[in-house]
DNA sequence: GTCTATAGCTTGATAGAC
DNA sequence: GTCTATCAAGCTATAGAC
């Protein structure tokens, strides 16, 4: 921030514009592949002006990741231990798929980071992410023990939901290259719902 | 190549060493994030010596991708229309998971490329990949029409196999951050096999 | 707050000795 | 075939005018 006072409207607006531009560029080229020039051009600002709002390229990237991990995990947080097990999980899958559709850039930003070894968010994965997943795995295990959903490895169940749903954002070009003009998001929801109903319906 | 004659043993060995080093570095940092210096160091050569074997960084990357797409699709090519449908698909999933375990660097090389829009292999995706997938989708649709496996969207079925199996290579750090010391590959095969048996067993 | 100009570094690739 | 030295371009970040 340029000053210690509360940000003005212009400052808020410019920071938001920069972050949106940076999301676009980082998602498409990775941290190293993105240049400050590209981000500035995308944001409609000069390079020094952009660096007036953020001290460095690194700082822009960090600001993006920090805000995003929380948002990204919201659908899992909403998984309700008091709800009907199968429907809760299906609803989680649907929310996750919807995020891939609405926020593919955010998904690819994370994908870039994690494929390359998560050098900047490994701590967050080991702490925040692990704690949340462990908590929800406990819920799922209870449901399985009560025979309300079929028994499968709960961690792999969650990984499968992540991989399946994020695939449509992260590997979008490949999916579309194979499917042609048909929009994958038209048919994906029904497929994933069928998959998890058959996998988890009590025997 | 340095000369037009057939490569000597030393040339072959050095080219192989360079490609292996480049795979390591490109997989970990992406094309733009990798430097020729890093690759040379990893290969135990000087930078000019490396560029004696390949004309440019671009050429090394292209050589890697070219050789790899074929290998990567071999498991799908092996899907046999004459075999027992469910067992053929399960065997495909197992082979694919095994490749993620044995060749995680190759998986991440592709992941980096595709997440960033596949600028260098989009043509191969639209031609070679699409042709192969369309052919195998036809086989799967026949099986479904004959009632030998349950009916699901065949393209999404294949995407699900790719995403599920490659997730263990591409998102390895995240998987391990969540699961802790336990090796995900110990329990993954059983999970994916269960998943596809329940999804595809005829009603 | 925003710009032009530029410092200072990293990187891909080449020259030329051995 | 392999090296040291180096060039030219591209990059992040800053200086300083307005």
UniProtKB/TrEMBL annotation, chains A, B:
- Name the Pfam families on file: TetR_C_3, TetR_N
Record-annotated HTH tetR-type domain positions: 12-72
What PROSITE patterns does the database record attribute to this sequence? HTH_TETR_2
- Keywords linked to the UniProt accession: DNA-binding
State the DNA-binding region(s). 35-54
- Superkingdom classification of source: Bacteria
Q: Does the keyword Cell division apply?
A: no
What PANTHER family does the record point to? HTH-TYPE TRANSCRIPTIONAL REGULATOR RUTR (PTHR30055)
Spell out the protein name for this chain.
TetR family transcriptional regulator C-terminal domain-containing protein
Question: What is the organism of origin for this protein?
Answer: Lutimaribacter marinistellae
**Taxonomic classification, please?**
Bacteria, Pseudomonadati, Pseudomonadota, Alphaproteobacteria, Rhodobacterales
């Amino acid at each position: 921030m340029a000053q210690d006072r509360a940000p003005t409207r212009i400052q808020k607006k410019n920071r938001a514009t920069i972050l949106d531009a940076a999301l676009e560029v980082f998602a498409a080229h990775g941290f190293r592949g993105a240049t400050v020039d590209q981000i500035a051009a995308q944001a409609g600002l000069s390079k020094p002006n952009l660096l007036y709002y953020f001290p460095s390229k690194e700082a822009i990237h960090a600001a993006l990741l920090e805000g995003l991990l929380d948002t990204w995990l919201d659908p899992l947080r909403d998984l309700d231990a008091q709800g009907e097990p199968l429907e809760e999980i299906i609803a989680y899958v649907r929310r996750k798929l919807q995020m891939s559709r609405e926020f593919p850039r955010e998904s690819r930003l994370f994908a870039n980071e994690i494929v390359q070894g998560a050098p900047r968010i490994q701590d967050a994965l080991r702490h925040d992410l692990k704690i949340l997943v462990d908590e929800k795995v406990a819920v799922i295990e209870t449901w399985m023990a009560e025979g309300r959903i079929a028994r499968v490895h709960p961690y792999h169940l969650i990984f499968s939901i992540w991989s399946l749903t994020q695939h449509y954002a992260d590997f979008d070009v490949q999916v579309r290259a194979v499917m042609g003009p048909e929009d994958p998001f038209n048919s994906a929801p029904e497929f994933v719902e069928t998959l998890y109903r058959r996998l988890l319906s009590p025997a």
